[in-house]
Design a protein that fits this description.
Layout lengths: L1 E10 L2 E11 L4 E5 L6 H8 L7 E6 L8 H5 L2 E3 L12 H11 L7 H9 L15 H13 L5 E5 L7 H16 L4 E5 L3 H7 L2 E6 L2 E7 H7 L4 H15 L7
Parallel strand pairs: 3-7, 3-8, 5-6, 6-7
Antiparallel strand pairs: 1-2, 1-4, 8-9
Helix pairs in contact: 3-5
């Protein structure tokens, strides 16, 4: 599904990504974790071809952005942050634009059903600039799912969501992964979420994936301090090592 090999990205003369290798099979729900500034958002943006990479390869179902740009972009959906949405459009109008961009004749009923499940229904026809943070966050997440792309890229999608909406979204994402409808790469600081709902976690540190846990390993960690302790111990060990990143 998603294959990343030796990905390097520099900004301002500094390495943001320094040789990332990552494989995400079909139907896997993976957490991308790490401290602030580790490069999680940059990696998601690089996958979307929004940041130019210096070296390495990114393939989605064997497609690359340079050789098959249109087909490549149809393979993923990126959730947008609330401040990236147009203030003068309503959630419905915005999602209809996304549907048109994906060559759909209309906004799929499934998207409207999920909007209702997330509690967005009453906000669908208000200008986004007048919507609550939670409503804009939900709209940003729905942006990713229009057209049922086989890869979802989500950056802290639960920020600003009330408990009912957050639970509904977790259930839907888990269902989609379980049925093989899509693979999901989710950048998050919520390690409990990773332990309870996801198939694994990958720790990004110093521009590299330095450790990865599968579902069985995450389950075992719950008896010994959890993923949070495992990540903190790895961060401390890296910082203490000669040449390791500073706190």
């Amino acid at each position: 599904m998603l294959n990343i090999e030796s990905l390097t990205l520099q900004r301002g003369g500094q390495a943001v990504l320094a040789g990332v290798d990552l494989h995400l099979p079909k139907g896997e729900f993976l957490a991308l974790i790490g401290p602030n500034g580790a490069g999680k958002t940059s990696l998601l943006r690089a996958i979307c071809d929004q940041l130019p990479v210096d070296q390495g390869h990114i393939r989605i179902d064997g497609l690359t952005a340079d050789r098959d740009p249109v087909a490549y972009r149809q393979r993923f959906g990126l959730a947008l942050a609330p401040d990236e949405l147009p203030a003068d459009l309503s959630p419905r109008q915005w999602l209809q634009l996304i549907a048109a961009a994906r060559d759909l004749p209309e906004l799929p009923a499934e998207v409207l059903e999920l909007a209702e499940d997330l509690g967005l229904g009453e906000w669908l026809d208000r200008a986004l600039g007048r919507c609550s943070l939670g409503a804009r966050q939900k709209t940003g997440v729905l942006t990713a799912v229009v057209g049922s792309p086989p890869l979802l890229l989500l950056d802290e999608p639960f920020n600003g969501l009330d408990p009912i909406a957050a639970f509904a979204l977790k259930q839907r994402l888990r269902q989609w992964a379980d049925t093989g409808r899509c693979s999901i790469l989710l950048a998050t600081h919520n390690l409990e979420l990773a332990e309870r709902w996801l198939d694994g976690a990958a720790l990004l540190l110093g521009g590299r994936i330095v450790q990865r846990w599968d579902a069985a390993e995450l389950h075992e960690l719950q008896a010994s301090g959890g993923l949070e302790l495992a990540m903190v111990e790895r961060l401390r060990a890296t910082q203490a090592a000669p040449g390791g990143p500073s706190p």
